[in-house]
Amino acid sequence: SAVTITIPVVVHVLYNTTAQNVTDAQIASQIDVLNEDFQKLNADVTKTPSAFAGSVADVGIAFTLAKRDPNGNATTGITRKQVTQTSWGTDDKMKSSTTGGTNAWNTSQYLNIWVCNLSGGVLGYAQFPGGAAATDGVVILTTGFGRYGSAAAPFNLGRTATHEVGHWLNLRHIWGDASCGNDYVSDTPTQQTSNTGCPTFPKRTCGNTTNGDMFMNYMDYTDDACMYMFSNGQSSRMNALFATGGARESL
Ligand code: ARG
Ligand code: ZN
Ligand code: CA
């Protein structure tokens, strides 16, 4: 694995019940998953069907909990706040102290991850590059965070954050959010719609009569145990953000 960039991460834990106050160990498990998945170090990559094995990418991105806060002081890279809200929507209120949450740390220098109790069965959501600075980052449901502690099956292997950080690095859903839609990546086969659960290979849609859907891609909606790869094209799309003039060059 050749790491080309290391991204400092701050995790903002927002808890109402003490059970939602995820431990440092649960947070560490999530950072481990991100490093494995973005460096093709995940043990389950061996499940990739041989038809897609040549497409699996080492994205070359590492993640580390921040060691300095925005003022230059030593930090664990974790903030914790007990909140009165019992759950949150996808309206970014968790990202501002004026709406009960925690403000982002400088989003040109950190990946901000808010961990909270999202309502409505939402596992997580992300902001694409180029959006408002104050709301840049990803939000992950407490029980879909990490692979330890309160993480609950079938979303207990930390892949929600892998998927959301993929969006944060400009990746679209693999089916292009339309019937046989476009994800702007050429080595991901055109796919009719999202897959859920754990499909059996091959699953052929959109006239793709050979290998079918790349449903084991992190940008599908399959279970955590059934997604284990980014493609080379997705890796190029993500890495382009760090080139001169790219939206995440400052990181
Ligand atoms: N539904 C969420 C989204 O669109 C995340 C899906 C994550 N999937 C998973 N197996 N953890 O962003
Ligand atoms: Zn998504
Ligand atoms: Ca594609």
Q: Report the radius of gyration as a whole number of Å.
A: 18 Å
Tell me the strand percentage band: 5-15%
Low-confidence stretches: none
- Termini separation: 20 Å
Task: Please estimate the helix content.
Answer: 10-25%
Number of helices: 4
Query: Which structural class matches the secondary elements?
Result: alpha/beta
Quote the average pLDDT: 97
Can you summarize the main beta sheet?
6 strands, mixed
Quick one: overall form?
A: globular
Q: Any ligands, ions or cofactors bound here, and which?
A: arginine, zinc ion, calcium ion
- Please trace the helix and strand order, writing H or E for each element: EHHEEEEEHH
| Total beta strand runs | 6
Descriptive account of the structure:
The chain is an alpha/beta fold and 251 residues long. 15% of the residues lie in helices and 14% in strands. It has four helices and six strands. Strands 1, 2, 3, 4, 5 and 6 form a six-stranded mixed beta sheet that branches. The longest helix has 15 residues. It is globular. The mean pLDDT is 97. The structure holds arginine, zinc ion and calcium ion. The site of calcium ion has 4 residues, from loops.
